[in-house]
Amino acid sequence: MDLLFCLESILSDFRHLFNQQNFALFQAFIFGFIANRGNGTLTELYQSSASQTKYWSFPKFLSRGKWSADAVSALLIRRIQHLFMEWVYVYDETKALKTGKTQWGLHFFRNCGYQKHRVNQSKFHYGHEFGALGLLCQTATRWHLFPVWVKLIVPQTLRDKSQAVLKRICSKIPPGLIIFDRGFARRKVFTMARSFGHHILCRAKSNAVFYRLPKPPKHRQRGRPRKYGDRLDIRRLRYNDTDIDTKSYSIASKIVRTRMCDADVRLVIIRKRPKVSKPYRYFCVFTTDLTLEIPKIIKHYQHRWQIETAFRDAKEHFGFDTYRTKSRKSINRFVQLSFVAASLTKLVFTSGDAPQKEISVEKVCQHLGIHWYRPRKLTQGLRVAYLRSQIAVSTFSAKFKEKTNSQNINVRFQDDTALPFDKAA
């Protein structure tokens, strides 16, 4: 029960963002997302939340409620950053497949993620795209990613296209380091993010070109000074063996310039060879934060993959892609509440309070009656299952906490009472 008290205390920090009725609905949504065991539709959320209001208050809360999803996201970010000293941002995009045609912002997008007869097949799926921001924080034991902000992307509109959504998010968060995948390696993205005071950490594409810093001329020359030096050949750099987290890497680093960014960047290359007979393979990442150490650059990008697992957990446990709303405002609010529920579920287990320090993988598995599964770390599925069991116990005890003793039960049974199966016999 300590986890539920901790969750309620965290939710109380959002009280000033809502009026009394909307705050009760906000709490009902969060508990509904966590306690829901179905697909996560509005009907299932209403049944799981044990709310005392009518069902129609739920869709009205999404469409006509006077509250701001951006304010909820900003407060969640400030609270997490206050708890953890070291943190970085992770930005990525995800998709949700839909079948209806009445929802706002649906469009086709190509999917080449499967093969048929060893040939890549392409299909156009009907659905929505979202730009999402995660907060990667270092706790006492490991790194955790909290999904904190999500926005709907509509390529056909100027207000909700990919670049505009990223700009809106970057303008409302405190300056920090943002980790991107190589699909965002574009000059417009980096220039916009740096204009708001953020640093960039991104993976380079296979055809990316980097240049050395230009050497100062021996004599004064006419015209503008050179901006790019000679083209960099990563195969001729000097590689050194470096141990990072008990693993050895062959790493080279150099401050270079690239046309993808208007500032100097630190390029880090990891070289590996799967077999002696095979050529080297190169993995390149670069950052605009020149003070960042090389081991941290590699660790940060290694932990970037947690946002992909966060998307999977939000869709599997918190109903991220099962919304039935039609308007842009309702869709944005629904997926944002799903992200808030996912972050708070992880936050109550990773905060520094005394009750949470005793919760381990063995304790959770023993409480749930799981004897065949022993993961090395506490997964999001185990957290959700543990919280659902706590909510189920608290809901059951709240319903029958009064007038449940034997004095209020009138039992009249005699030995000669005819039973149904006696007649059948």
Order of helices and strands: HHHHHEEEEHEHEEEEEHHHHHHH
Gyration radius (Cα, Å) is: 27 Å
* Silhouette: globular
Strand segment tally? 10
Distance between the termini: 50 Å
Overall pLDDT score: 86
Overview of the structural elements:
This protein is of the alpha+beta class. Strands 1, 2, 3, 4, 5, 6, 7, 8, 9 and 10 form a ten-stranded mixed beta sheet that branches. It is built from 14 helices and ten strands. Mean pLDDT is 86; it is low at 403-425. The chain has helices at residues 2-11, 20-35, 42-49, 57-63, 69-83, 162-170, 187-195, 294-302, 306-317, 328-350, 354-357, 361-368, 380-399, 420-424, and strands at 87-97, 107-116, 119-138, 143-153, 177-180, 199-203, 240-244, 247-256, 265-272, 281-287.
Question: Characteristics of this structure?
Answer:
alpha+beta, ten-stranded mixed sheet, 14 helices, about 425 residues, about 20% strand
Brief synopsis:
With 425 residues, this protein is of the alpha+beta class. It contains 14 helices and 10 strands. Helix 2 (20-35) packs across helix 3 and helix 2 (20-35) packs across helix 10 (328-350).
Give the SSE map.
Blueprint: H1 2-11, H2 20-35, H3 42-49, H4 57-63, H5 69-83, E1 87-97, E2 107-116, E3 119-138, E4 143-153, H6 162-170, E5 177-180, H7 187-195, E6 199-203, E7 240-244, E8 247-256, E9 265-272, E10 281-287, H8 294-302, H9 306-317, H10 328-350, H11 354-357, H12 361-368, H13 380-399, H14 420-424
Parallel strand pairs: 1-5, 5-6
Antiparallel strand pairs: 1-3, 2-3, 3-4, 6-10, 7-8, 8-9, 9-10
